[in-house]
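Is this the right way to post structure tokens for a design question? Let me know if I should format differently. Anyway, here goes:
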């Protein structure tokens, strides 16, 4: 075996890894649209015509059909990729999922190529690719269609890294232009590509090269475009952060990045226990800072110490991989608030760096003939465990009901998970199941605003069953619990309209539009109500 492995040609190594990817993930292609896929793809009218291409870059509202999502992100190239998918195959979830899988395969090949540039032989480069290809948490990044921004931006970032490594190793500055173009494309795909300058600096540091020799190139070609993009994003969205900082003491806010770093480290070390929503887990740790923060701090120091140790020992690939993972995590550690505390898809880019670390560790252990065979066998066993775990994850990401049934079971007290489960069950035609989930959400609600949301949803279930007598009191209670709930007032207006109480409908509708004048169903009801009133006046005359 030791005579065969070093002679494996890169083409055959890559083909073997890609074949493995399709075997493991093939069943994912039969899944449907899940969660935000309905907003970014299925119901997004903007992507149905390529004539909207320029507006993808100038109008954030083209990114989805959900106004709340459009104020959080600016990813025009991701939207363009969805539009191209639609131009080819319409609203086919199988096609969108296939494109994501192909992009993941592309990233695997790019990582293998990067490892070859770092001096890894074919088998060890393949180990890096296989680790990245089969790491279980990556399911959320590309099996979920909305994870497109993660896989596409990572492709651009890996391209940028390949060109930058060539620039450093050959001394040819001409490689900086394609590196910069790839990094810029990554920025317009997902804002986490702002980590590219840090990844480049990390490579120079890990190699022991003088930083001064490369600061000009990194600053001009990588850091400056990233800074300009941040300014453009601010101009488009009106803010830097995705969400307002959580309402908690400063000490807790300062602890969040360390807790998240520790949680991500825990996921990487034991990736077999899948979660979709991590809010409850992080909040529990914030509630016990005295127990968790010292351990998180010690882990961060240990990580830094290991990186420095590897660099001093001349293990440049391993040191760079660790620094890559850290640089890629920095934008998602809630140093600047983002929409979620933690999510497995946010590990996709860091795992490319950890794939390099995995290959470096395997090469370091497998120096001898016997140990090399043992390392390859152990890696094969680990990848088999990954593949088995992935099959369970694919079932979860098949449709909305599967996803939120799983998540609500893992987070039984999570209000949003239960609410999303109720919505998924209702869309699937299971009203009884939806009602049960809403009752659970009502028990998990922590304030009147959440109780108002649930009462309104219970009312819509009653109304869908033509039970207006049972629905109206629920809508009224929802409006009383939260006078800012425009949906409750809209539903009251619709109920009054259906009962032909036009003056009552007008009063509730006015309140709803005052709270949210852009809500399309309310505006449509306003048109219908005006027409009904005009018809009544005409008959009166």
């Amino acid at each position: 075996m030791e005579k065969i492995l070093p002679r494996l040609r890169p083409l055959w190594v890559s083909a073997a890894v890609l074949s493995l990817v399709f075997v493991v993930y093939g069943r994912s292609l039969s899944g449907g649209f899940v969660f935000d896929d309905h907003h970014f793809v299925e119901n997004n009218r903007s992507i149905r015509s390529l004539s909207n291409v320029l507006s993808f870059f100038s109008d954030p509202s083209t990114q989805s059909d959900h106004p709340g999502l459009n104020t959080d992100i600016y990813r025009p190239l991701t939207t363009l990729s969805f539009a191209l998918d639609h131009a080819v195959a319409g609203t086919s979830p199988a096609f969108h999922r296939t494109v994501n899988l192909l992009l993941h395969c592309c990233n695997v090949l790019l990582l293998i190529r990067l490892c070859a540039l770092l001096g890894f032989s074919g088998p060890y480069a393949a180990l890096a690719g296989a680790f990245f290809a089969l790491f279980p948490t990556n399911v959320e990044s590309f099996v979920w269609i909305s994870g497109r921004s993660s896989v596409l931006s990572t492709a651009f970032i890996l391209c940028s890294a390949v060109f930058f490594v060539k620039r450093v190793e050959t001394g040819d500055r001409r490689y900086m232009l394609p590196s910069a173009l790839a990094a810029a494309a990554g920025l317009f795909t997902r804002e986490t590509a702002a980590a590219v300058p840090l990844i480049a600096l990390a490579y120079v540091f890990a190699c022991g090269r003088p930083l001064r020799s490369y600061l000009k190139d990194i600053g001009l070609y990588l850091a400056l475009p990233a800074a300009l993009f941040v300014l453009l994003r601010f101009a488009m969205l009106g803010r830097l952060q995705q969400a307002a900082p959580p309402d908690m003491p400063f000490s807790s806010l300062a602890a969040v990045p360390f807790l998240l770093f520790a949680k991500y480290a825990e996921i990487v070390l034991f990736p077999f226990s899948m979660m979709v929503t991590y809010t409850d887990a992080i909040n529990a740790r914030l509630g016990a800072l005295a127990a968790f923060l010292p351990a998180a701090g010690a882990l961060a120091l240990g990580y830094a110490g290991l990186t420095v140790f590897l660099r001093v020992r001349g293990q440049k690939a391993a040191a760079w991989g660790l620094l890559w993972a850290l640089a890629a995590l920095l934008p998602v550690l809630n140093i600047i608030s983002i929409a979620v505390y933690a999510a497995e898809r946010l590990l996709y880019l860091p795992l490319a760096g950890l794939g390099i670390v995995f290959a470096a560790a395997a090469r370091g252990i497998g120096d001898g003939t016997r140990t090399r065979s043992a390392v390859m066998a152990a890696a094969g066993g680990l990848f088999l465990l990954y593949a088995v775990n992935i099959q369970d994850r694919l079932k979860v990401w098949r449709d909305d009901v599967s996803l939120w049934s799983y998540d609500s079971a893992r987070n039984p007290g999570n209000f949003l998970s239960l609410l999303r489960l109720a919505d998924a069950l209702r869309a699937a035609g299971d009203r009884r199941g939806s009602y049960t989930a809403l009752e659970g959400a009502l028990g998990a609600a922590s304030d009147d605003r959440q109780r108002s949301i649930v009462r309104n949803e219970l009312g819509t279930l009653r109304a869908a069953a033509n039970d207006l007598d049972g629905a109206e009191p629920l809508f009224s209670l929802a409006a009383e619990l939260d006078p800012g709930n425009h949906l409750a007032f809209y539903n009251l207006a619709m109920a009054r309209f259906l009962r032909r109480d036009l003056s009552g409908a007008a009063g509730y509708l006015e309140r709803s539009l005052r709270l949210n004048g852009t809500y399309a169903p309310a505006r449509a009801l306003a048109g219908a109500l005006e027409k009904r009133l005009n018809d009544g006046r005409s008959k009166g005359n």
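Format looks fine. Someone answered above. Worth noting: The two ends are 96 Å apart (CA to CA). Residues 1-7 have pLDDT under 50 and may be disordered.
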